[in-house]
Amino acid sequence: QVRLVESGGGLVQDGGSLRLSCEASGSGASIGVMAWYRQAPGKQRESVASIGRGGSTTYEDSVKGRFTISRDNAKNTVYLQMNSLKPEDTAVYYCNARAFQIVTGRFNDYWGQGTQVTVSS
Fold first, then answer.
1. Which of 4, 35, 83, 114 is 20 to 30 Å apart from 97, CA to CA?
2. Pair 120, 14: CB distance under 8 Å
């Protein structure tokens, strides 16, 4: 089992910055790709950014150039640096990790509890 704990959300003004963190803990699993998703009120959850163990990254178009995802494999932690925040970035942000279960030989997806990011205009 893998547990994900997020931190770093909050209220910020238009143009401000926030840094989200997500620490994975547990045993019996090897964590692969980690990612951040977000869900705004009345909208579907969408992918924001992802990062592989080797550091390869992907970004949703609207956050390119403003958000940076990074990870520390030794700490099993993924970060999301968010700069130039806009009101439309307001959402609950969720951490996701895909982990290989050693006992079953399968991959499972795990989710954090979510952290609220609110950008005021």
1. 83
2. yes
